[in-house]
Each structure stands twice: as structure tokens, then as C-alpha cells.
Amino acid sequence: MDDLTDTRTSRRTFLRAAALTTAAAPLWTSTAAADTGPIVKPLPTDTFIVHGTNAETRWEALAGTGSVVPVDRFFVRNHTRTPLLSADTWRLHLFGTGLPGPTELSYEDLRALPARTITARIECAGNGRSFFTSQQGQTVAGTPWRLGAVGVARWRGVPLATVLRRAGLRASAVDVLPEGLDPDYVTGGVNLGPVRRPLPIRKALKDVLVAYEMNGEPLPPDHGFPVRLVVPDWIGIASIKWLGRIEVSSTPLASPWNTQFYRYFGPDYPAEGALLGRQNTKSAFELPWNGTLAAGQTGALHGRSWSGTGGVHKVEVSTDGLTWRRAIPRGHDGGWLRWSVPWRPAPGSYTLRARATDVTGTTQPEVAPFNTQGYLFGAVVNHPVTVG
Ligand SMILES: Nc1nc2c(c(=O)[nH]1)N[C@H]1C(S)=C(S)[C@@H](COP(=O)(O)O)O[C@H]1N2
Ligand SMILES: [Mo]
């Protein structure tokens, strides 16, 4: 249950908070910070679908945008709420058996290190989860995202490899455990502590960025200000926001986010589950879900396909449920392949389907393998539209 929206728990938490308020009437209930919701930025309903503490991007809001998703349209996945942190007092603490001793880094220290800018996609492992239910009739736990829990941005920061080496990284290190400064995650009455998930040192040294800018601006609060990780091609939980601590260890590390969540569980998996790492391959149309298009208005369908397996090789589109046409690339400028196909439909109801084949030759399947928490739905999505 990554994207956990356990309404029972939140109601319980709320009631507890309400009881406290009545008893002690703390002043903080009237501060500005307490007045903001779990997400700070505006969430206009034509751009986002809100799911509890999370907000997914409506795909029609990406029509006409380039490869990079503007911050005001980028999805937000919060386990609790966006904390309002100060760059002046922020420190990154590094410690553990994989280092000669503990060290810390200020925002200024970080900004003084050699920087790199990358274009990278962040996607929630639960993206597409609702289709396990709507297309496959299966019950899964977690936020019922359609396909909008994904975005591409330009990230600027310092390679994690540079930060770890500056801290004296030992050859014995096997795992790092980055940890967020957002409130502890409490679910089912259990406090699981700060959001954190181990990352193997191999990936940590490969292409992970300790990022402080998104699309040329300081990171917005909802996306990790002042500093977050960006872990290309891996499931979104790896890209820890509001980064505060990194344990570097010579022995393997664990957290609920790699033992309880973000694992495959179910009849097809061993009792202890199977670990998730990389993202899979998906495709989406830049169209409203179940929307109506004016006949004659559209001469083409636009969409995007992306893959955590190394890239997209080709995309095919079906508008009749029978035949597939090759989509025409509009740009493969980082993060995802944008494409189009000509389409001049007669009025009526249609099911649009797009399927990508990745660079390994694997095509999106008709059915996604079931797992109880509904991760990595990679099957072809049936997108309903009406042409009126
Ligand atoms: N500290 C912290 N980091 C976090 C999370 C969180 O709740 N707290 N959510 C994770 C998940 S599940 C995802 S999918 C991405 C989402 O990044 P975004 O909100 O910038 O789109 O952040 C990850 N990093
Ligand atoms: Mo996620």
C-alpha cells in the first residue's frame, strides 16, 4: 500500500488531533502552516485529480507542453504532508559503517560542489493502479491512480557519488538509506518513522542526483525543497524528498518501504514478496479520460510512452480494437517519447489503445500480473472517448 489512503487511520488520527485541540487548545492550530493542506501548490481541478494527500496530473493538461512538465502540472505524492523547511538551517547528515565517521553538509556546501543538470522522469510505482480493478476486476490496496502519477523535469544538483565520496565512502559500503524530513508516516496505528528506502550502492554511484533545482528554479516545497534525490528509472519512492539524512552501510539495510511496501506480494510471489526497483513501460494519450472531442476538431491523436528499462523503441496505436498503426515520434528529448497518429473519426464512441515496445523488444502486455498492492500496471490501457 504505497500510496496509502487509509481513511480509517486518517479519521482516527484526525479525531485524536481534535481531542487534543479541545483539551489544550494549542496556539499552533491557527498558524499559517497548519492552514495549508498536505500539498502547498494550487491544485486546479482542470489540471489535477486529488487523492487524499496526493494529486495526479490530468493527461489533457500535458497536451501542448514539451517534454518537461511545468511545476504547476507535476503530480505530487506525499505520504503525509509537505513540510515547510528553511535552506538556511537545513543540513544533510551522513553517517554509518560505510563511512569513516559522521559528516554534515549545508545548503551552501552542496551548492558549492560541481553540479550537473539532467532530464529525468519520476513515476510512482502505483501509477496505473486503478486499472487492475477497472480492466482486470482485481482488488488492490493503495491510491487508485489512473496514468497521471508521472512527470519529467530538468533537475540540477550534485551527483550522489560526489557527496558520498566527499564524506569518505568506504569500499565496503553496500547500501545507502536516504531519509525524508517530512512527518513520520503512521498507518494502521503504527508509526513507521520517516519515509526512507534503501538504495544499493551500485545505483547510488551510477546516476543519482542530490537535486536542489527543478526546471531552473529552486525545488518547490511539494517536490522536496530544499533538497531531494532524483533516482532515474527507479520507482518514485527511491527519489526521497526533503532529504535530511543518509545512512551509508557496509551491511544490507531495510525499512518498511522495501519490506512491507514496494514489494510484489500475491499468489504468484514467494511469501516474503519480491523487491521492486526499476519502472516498467507505459503509454498514455494526452486526452481527457472519458471525454468528448468535437468531430472535425481532431486530425491527430497525441500521446507519450516511457520506460524504466532503457527507453522506448516503438509505439503502436489502435482506435478500432483490431488493427494497430505505428505512431510517429514528435520528440524523444529525455524522459519519454512523445508521439502522434493521424485520426479523423466519425462521431461515435471509441476505445483508444497505445502500446510501446521497449529497447529490449518487450511490448506492453494485454494483462498486468496481479500483486496485492497494485504496483507497476504495465498492460495496455483502454482509454474511452466520445466523438460528438
Ligand atoms: N520524504 C518523502 N519522499 C518521498 C515521498 C514522501 O512521501 N516523502 N514520496 C515518494 C513517492 S512514493 C513518490 S512517487 C515521489 C513523488 O515525487 P513528487 O511528489 O515530486 O512527484 O516522491 C517520493 N519521495
Ligand atoms: Mo510513489
Describe this structure as you would to a colleague:
The chain has about 400 residues and is of the alpha+beta class. It is about 15% helix and about 30% strand. Strands 4-3-14-7-10 form a five-stranded mixed beta sheet. Mean pLDDT is about 90; it is low at about 1-35. It is built from seven helices and 25 strands. It has helices spanning about 5-25, 30-35, 105-110, 130-135, 160-165, 200-205, 255-260; strands at about 50, 55, 90-95, 105, 115-125, 150-160, 175-180, 185, 190, 200, 210-215, 215-220, 230, 245-250, 265, 275, 280-285, 290-295, 300-305, 310-320, 325, 330, 335-340, 350-360, 385. The longest helix is centred in the N-terminal third of the chain and has 18 residues, at about 5-25. It has two domains: about 5-275, Sulfite Oxidase, Chain A, domain 2; about 280-385, Immunoglobulin-like. It is globular, with a radius of gyration of 22 Å. The structure holds ligand MTE and molybdenum atom (MO).
List keywords for this structure.
binds molybdenum atom; 2 domains; 25 strands; 7 helices; five-stranded mixed β-sheet; alpha+beta; Sulfite Oxidase, Chain A, domain 2; five-stranded antiparallel β-sheet; binds the ligand Nc1nc2c(c(=O)[nH]1)N[C@H]1C(S)=C(S)[C@@H](COP(=O)(O)O)O[C@H]1N2; disordered N terminus; Immunoglobulin-like; single chain; 31% strand; 388 residues
In short:
With 388 residues, the chain is of the alpha+beta class. The chain has seven helices and 25 strands.
Set out the fold topology:
Blueprint (H helix, E strand, L loop, with lengths): L6 H18 L7 H4 L12 E4 L2 E4 L33 E5 L7 E4 H6 L3 E8 L6 H5 L15 E10 H7 L8 E6 L5 E2 L2 E2 L7 E2 H6 L2 E6 L2 E2 L9 E3 L12 E7 L6 H4 L3 E2 L9 E2 L5 E5 L5 E3 L6 E8 L4 E7 L6 E2 L1 E4 L5 E6 L5 E11 L24 E5 L1
Parallel strand pairs: 3-14, 18-25
Antiparallel strand pairs: 1-2, 3-4, 5-6, 6-11, 7-10, 7-14, 8-9, 11-12, 11-13, 15-16, 17-19, 19-23, 20-21, 20-24, 22-23, 24-25
The chain binds the ligand Nc1nc2c(c(=O)[nH]1)N[C@H]1C(S)=C(S)[C@@H](COP(=O)(O)O)O[C@H]1N2 and molybdenum atom.
